Write a sequence for this structure.
């Protein structure tokens, strides 16, 4: 599994639900022998507190292999603050390195820039499934990527299996990250993720 974090977040938000990453991992682990689940995201490191850090830490301790790098900040011609953190190269390199050891890759992204990557690994005999959505407005998956994939999985069709419960009255259990100290709840993490992704709307 190769998850373009910002792209998957945007697709799920476009469909009106939040991802429960524990359920997501369990769903795909139950469909075959899952070798590795990679999650890619850029981090705003120059701030005193990075709102996405609790999610990154939770995923790291709960079955995901995290690939991160610092964002780059710049100002546009109008003086507006922009944040950029493209993870395409990191994801593509990892896919090429792993494709000799697996027979099926699941890519969570709708980015058309990955079409050539899919073509390359398919020539090595690896099947590729793309998870994204055509039902958001606008659709999140590029047509050329969907056509190149061996199998396209509509994210909305997975919602009943991977959506996070939104009941505000439901008790939120604490998540421990191996240190023994209380960690943010799932609700806190989800809120932090939303704040972080909104701050990174300009991420390519």
């Amino acid at each position: 599994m190769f998850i373009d974090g910002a792209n998957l977040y945007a697709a799920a938000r476009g469909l009106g639900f939040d991802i429960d990453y524990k359920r997501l991992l369990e769903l795909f682990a139950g469909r075959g022998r899952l070798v590795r689940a990679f999650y890619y995201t850029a981090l705003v490191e120059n701030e005193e507190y990075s709102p996405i850090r609790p999610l990154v830490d939770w995923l790291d301790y709960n079955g995901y292999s995290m690939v991160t790098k610092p964002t780059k900040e710049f100002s546009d011609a109008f003086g507006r603050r922009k944040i950029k953190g493209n993870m395409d190269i990191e994801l593509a390199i990892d896919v090429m390195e792993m494709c000799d050891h697996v027979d099926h890759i699941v890519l969570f992204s709708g980015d058309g820039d990955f079409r050539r990557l899919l073509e390359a690994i398919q020539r090595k005999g690896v099947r590729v499934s793309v998870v994204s959505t055509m039902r958001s407005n606008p659709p999140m998956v590029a047509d050329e990527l969907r056509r190149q994939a061996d199998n396209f999985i509509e994210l909305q069709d997975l919602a009943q299996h991977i959506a996070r419960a939104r009941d505000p009255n439901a008790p939120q259990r604490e998540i421990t990250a191996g240190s023994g100290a209380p960690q943010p709840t799932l609700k806190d993490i989800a809120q932090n993720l939303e704040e972080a992704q909104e701050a990174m709307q300009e991420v390519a």
Q: What stands out?
A: Confidence is low (pLDDT under 50) at residues 170-184, 199-204.
